[in-house]
Amino acid sequence: MSSVNNLNGSGAGAVCTRCSPADVEQGRCNATHFVHEKMDDEPVAELEPEIVTPRPPPVDLSHHLSSLARSLRKSNLKGLYKYRSVPGIVNLAGGLPSPNYFPFDSLSASVAPCDRFAESMNSSLLSMLKSSKRCRNITVPKFVSPQGGRSSDVCLASALQYSAVEGLPKLRTFVKEFATKYQHQGKIPYDSPEVIMTCGNTDGLAKALKILGEGARGDKMLVEKYVYGGGPETAAAMGIGIVPVEMDKEGMMADGDGGLQEILESWDTVRDGPRPHLMYTITLGQNPTSSVLGLERRKEIYALCQKYDIIILEDDPYWFLQYGLFPELPDNRTFLARLTPSYITLDTDGRVLRFDTFSKTMAPGCRLGWIIGHPRFTERIARLTDTTTQFPSGAIQALVTKLLVDTWSISGWITWLSLLREKYEQRANLMCAALETSRTVTIIHLKNIRVRDDDGNVIDGPGGKYSLVHKAVKELYEFERPMGGMFIWVRVYFEIHRLFDGTNGQRIMDALFKYLAGPNLRCLVCPGGYFVPLDDGEGDGWKYLRLCFAAVEVEDLKRASENFGRGVKEFFELTEFPPDEDVEADGAGEDAELDVPHFC
Ligand SMILES: Cc1ncc(COP(=O)(O)O)c(C=O)c1O
């Protein structure tokens, strides 16, 4: 059986060169297609980048640990876990409930094939793949079958039991292999980066901040000037100072006014306290700006972090959503190789802790993600996990294991990510096109001119009168085409609104927000001020709105994007502020809140 793991987007009308037509017909072909339901003999080696070994260990960075991290003890009881796998051992040590009394006998789900979103592929290939379009049923039994099951051997008796803080071993192994060899292309420069599963990036970040940050020590954290609140808000609540760094189209700036270098070089420890030793950054599909930080900039920033001994907390839920890279659907290898790499691929020291989540690749309700980084840090996070969440939900870990390890395998997982990327890019394009059409208004000034003869008499009749037309194009808003992620960051030129008096920017923004959400347009957008990390009233967040193109149905997306443009135009024609009413939809209010998803 062939092992070519190829999305084969380049091959219009591609056919399998290795399997017989009968194999193809009966779904046994595994060569040209992007179907990667795991076959027992399917190696994924052809996707594997070469890994150079041995590598040096990471440097000792324990001086960054907080006093809480230093005082966390290893659980004595969890130390007994290793005996659970000793053949024949009877466990009288653990305070565990009997799995026989778990009310769940099995856990089943109908799951998508990894190539569900492949409509954009050519039709001959699609027709060949018809069989793979069907959902698969997966079942996690209560006990592993004595005959031996699929490769993950995941069962509810262990998944729903108290289990390893680092995550279910089969899942963690999968994630580690995926992260080190594929996502980061075998380029993490130090030996043995470690992985711990989390309940998503919010959980991972909170734990990382606890083991690395300490308000009482005067800790400070560098963040992008506009940034998703998760990291900064958690840090601020711990008394950690927030230091915003200037951004440009690419993301955090290394040099220039307000850039990282200037902040660090001009830091006066007598005046400003200890220099920041943490940096929280979203580098790929930044939330809210959708920028992607290029490799050269990364190198500069990483060098500064080395020089000033800063730990980088890289929060990248959108890493796989990078746009403008692929004129056609790439094969798996090309997909991964072209994505801008993470800081962790430059991390010779082990100073990058990286946060990945299944929230955007599967579903936020999974509450599942992982941290990869320096083993000393992940080990402390494991101790903290032991006293807090213990481990992510066993049920979801079991389902995800069954899907990734037994059903899709690594190549199928990459296919899934690649096709999701494609779908979200289509949405980004759709929204950009709709927003572009209403971005400007043309203002026409008409002046009637009368023509006079040489003696200065007005000439009446044809040719004696004409209009002088002066045309001016005014931009009401502008935006950068997103380079990644799920958002468009719109700069609205409130300053040219006739109601702007130089000081009331926030008021005009609030009025626009309500106008857009009001009964005629029903278009809910996110005010830019929500992404200004220091809420000191000084920021210019009021000039921006964040629009998400990911969540709603394509038809609604189109309509809402058009309504946005129309709404802004109408709003700029207002000569007085609309009545300041709260937007109340029928049935909205406290109770309706329950059905409304949370916002990220
Ligand atoms: C930058 C960033 N980090 C973290 C999160 C939350 O991730 P999780 O669901 O894994 O907690 C989000 C959600 O939108 C996000 O945009």
TrEMBL record:
It holds the Pfam family Aminotran_1_2. GO terms for biological process: alpha-amino acid metabolic process. SUPFAM superfamilies: PLP-dependent transferases. CDD domains: AAT_like (cd00609). Its cofactor is pyridoxal 5'-phosphate. Belongs to the class-I pyridoxal-phosphate-dependent aminotransferase family. This is Aminotransferase class I/classII large domain-containing protein. It comes from Orbilia brochopaga. The lineage of its organism: Eukaryota, Fungi, Dikarya, Ascomycota, Pezizomycotina.
